[in-house]
Specification:
It contains 7 helices and 5 strands. By secondary structure, the chain is an alpha/beta fold.
């Protein structure tokens, strides 16, 4: 047995970070938080087009490290997003699809992909990191269309974080553990 990954995808302010933390505590699991958020807070701005690939690569590197350093114990790694979100944002903001092929390949490696809906999570402004509820909902719709078009299996999560946690735990009980 070995570690396997659960990946949370979703637009900004859809509860990914909160659910990542809750899953890390409930399973237990190793959390991998969103590098893009860390980057934006450190740089006090959003990334340019030429910075997107490095951000996607660092998010994947962190997931890979967590999977490789689980101490030889079986368990879960919970990723608060993946390079697929960076690819989607590159398309949205820069009309750049160059990150999609590797991001889609990497996304298929996750044992479980969870799509966090805006439904049930109140919008919260957060400086340079969040644009507004309309963009959040547009991004969610784009992401859902992408997952469907690429036939990437996922589970849609709605409701408050606690309800989402219970949905995921119930789903994991029906599957064999890593």
């Amino acid at each position: 047995m070995h570690s396997e990954s659960i990946c949370l995808l979703g637009a900004e302010c859809t509860g990914k970070s909160s659910l990542t933390q809750a899953l890390a505590e409930a399973l237990p699991a190793t959390p991998v938080f969103e590098y893009l958020r860390e980057w934006c807070l450190r740089e006090a701005r959003t990334p340019r087009r030429d910075e997107q690939a490095a951000i996607a690569a660092e998010q994947q590197r962190r997931i890979d490290v967590a999977l490789a350093t689980s101490g030889g114990h079986p368990g879960w790694v919970v990723a608060d997003t993946s390079p697929l979100m960076t690819a989607l944002y590159s398309r949205h903001y820069f009309a750049d699809d160059s990150l999609f092929e590797p991001a889609l390949r990497l996304q298929r490696q996750h044992r479980l992909t969870l799509l966090c809906s805006p439904e049930g999570i109140a919008w919260q402004a957060d400086g340079c990191l969040r644009e507004g509820d309309a963009v959040r909902r547009q991004t969610h719709a784009e992401l859902q269309r992408l997952l469907d078009a690429e036939q990437l299996p996922y589970r849609l999560l709605e409701g408050r974080v606690e309800a989402r946690l219970q949905q995921v735990l119930a789903l994991l009980r029906t599957q064999s553990s890593p």
